Amino acid sequence: MRNYILRGTTFDGSIRVFTANTKEIYEYAKKLHNLSDFSAKEFGKMLTAGILMSATLKSDKDLLTISLKVDGEISGIVVTANSKQEIKGYVYEPQANGPLGDGSISVVKDLGLKEPIVSLGPIIDSDIEKTLNHFFETSEQVKTRFILSYDGGQFIQLMPGASEEAKAKFESGVNGEDIKIHEKLSVTFSCDCSREKALKAIIPLGKAELLDIIKIDGHINIHCHFCNSDYKFFEADVKTM
Ligand SMILES: [Zn+2]
Fold it and tell me: How far, CA to CA in Å, does 85 sit from each of 24, 35, 52?
């Protein structure tokens, strides 16, 4: 995938600007999850938002998860990104039509501390861009603005101590010629699931319980919602656990 984020600032450093191109990720995800046009576009916006926000993560192990739960047909969307700009996610109802509806957004940042940081907000006007802008306005100290599309977007933050001129520029919109690009980061849709992890997930059920399930169903199937992989375990797998 040739998608990327450009990390830049205005020349005086007072506004940081992340710009993402996510067209291929959108097309890949649409096919992977067999999404309707509506589900794909809403998912694309969430993937773009997740990728943009992942560029603010600092440490290798940091993880960011954005979830929507809504009363529209689509029901919900989840995306998870790490600091290497690897993103994955899924839509509750792949073949949904709009609108998004009302509901809530949650952002969970796992920064390797004792507890992850969880922030919540409402869905605004059935719109993901408006929802995220409202979320940042009410939950984060740094002034932030999203411009979001299903195949790309921009994430702009006014740094603390910015000049009046920078504040005015932030409000009126930053032009391309104001931005100095510092870094180009490549972005991928990828899942870190594996047969070993799937096995670890079922071990706590205990051998006897697992063998009972296999007796009835023939096997145990662990499905990964993020990438649609299936991991099948049979009697011999459980016996050698
Ligand atoms: Zn997976």
Answer: 14, 23, 8
